[in-house]
Each structure stands twice: as structure tokens, then as C-alpha cells.
Amino acid sequence: MTTDGEQRRSDRDMPSTDRGTLPITGVEVENDADLMDQALAEARLAEAHGDVPVGAVVVRNGEVIARRHNERELTGDPTAHAEILALRDAAAVVGSWRLNDCTLVVTLEPCAMCGGAAVNARLGRLVYGAADLAAGACLSLYNVCDDPRLNHRVELVAGVEAEVCGRLLSDFFAVRR
Ligand code: ZN
């Protein structure tokens, strides 16, 4: 899509909140790639505070209702992964811990904690970008999103804009080595 680059630029130019999180715009988005662009824009904000650039958005009825990035270093909280923060914000917006009608879009394959949180949220759908061969729990090492022993299965879409998502991470670690 020709407008992807422009969309990302305009996202970055928006005023940030205190945490550096992009404001929720209420802009309706049409497809997983557009949503991933928003998650990527969110991910890039994590670098400002030395956090691994992972970003996540939660969408409901075509509207982004939550958008967060990794804040583990910023907060010193081992659970402050982008997905956990976004799911918490989304639940606050929805007014319930049940997020059946929501989609979580995240730049990196969720870990066991975040995949578990998606199941516990009864999340409807999970979309991720790059696979995480070292810690991914949504296909790579485990698949907590689709385990018949658990009481909920999350519809899973993997590999959306995987190359861009992966490059963001490899560039981040390359600078730090
Ligand atoms: Zn995680």
C-alpha cells in the first residue's frame, strides 16, 4: 500500500502522552497490515527509554481501543510487556476482562506470559509479526493460543509484516552490541 510510509510518519508526529504512548485516535483501520503499522509505530517509542521495541494495539469493531509498547526497563516491571499493558487498557475501555470481540496486534510473537494473558482474556483474535524462536509461545516453542487442554482458543494470524517487525528488533540489538 502506498500510504503506509505516510501513515507511520503522521503517527510519529502526533503529540505523545507522559509515557510516550501514542494517543488513541479512534481512526478506523481496514486490515491487519494497517494495524501492524500502528503497532510498529508504537514499538518505535520503546527505544526512547531503552526498551526492546515491541508494540501492540487492541482493536474492536475496527477501532483501535488500546496501544502500548514494552515498558520493562522504564518501569522495572517484568510483566510490562506491550501485550499485557495493551490488554489491561483494552479491558478498562471495554469494561470487562472478557475481550472476545477484540483483536490484539503485536509486532513480535507473544511469550508464554502474554499468550497466557490472551487466553485468560478470552481474546478473539491474535495477530503478530515476527516469530520469536527464543521465547515465542504462539507457534515457535509452544502454542498456548490453540491448546485443546485449555478452556479457550484464540484465532491466530502469524507473520504479518514479519520482515519489518524483525528488522526493527535486529537493528535495535545491533546498535547495542
Ligand atoms: Zn510477553
Descriptive labels:
binds zinc ion, 177 residues, 5 strands, 37% helix, disordered N terminus, single chain, 5-stranded mixed β-sheet, alpha/beta
Architecture overview:
The radius of gyration is 15 Å and the shape is globular. Helices cover about 35% and strands about 15% of the residues. Strand 1 (about 55-60) and strand 2 (about 65-70) form a beta hairpin. The longest helix has 15 residues, at about 30-45. It has helices spanning about 5-15, 30-45, 70-75, 80-95, 110-120, 160-175; strands at about 55-60, 65-70, 100-110, 125-130, 155. Helix 1 (about 5-15) packs parallel to helix 2. By secondary structure, it is α/β, with parallel strands linked by helices. The site of zinc ion (ZN) has 6 residues, from helix 5.
**Small-molecule components bound:** zinc ion
Overall form: globular
Main beta sheet:
5 strands, mixed
DSSP summary, beta strand count: 5
Order of helices and strands: HHEEHHEHEEH
End-to-end C-alpha gap: 34 Å
Q: What fraction of the residues are assigned to beta strands by DSSP?
A: 15-25%
Q: State the strand order across the main sheet.
A: 2-1-3-4-5
Uncertain stretches of 5 or more adjacent residues: 1-18
Helix content: 25-40%
Q: Regarding quaternary structure, how should these chains be classified?
A: single chain
Task: List strands and helices in order, with pairings.
Blueprint: H1 4-13, H2 32-46, E1 55-60, E2 63-69, H3 72-75, H4 82-94, E3 102-108, H5 112-120, E4 125-130, E5 155-157, H6 162-176
Parallel strand pairs: 3-4, 4-5
Antiparallel strand pairs: 1-2, 1-3
Helix pairs in contact: 1-2
Residues 81, 83, 110-111, 113-114 line the site of zinc ion.
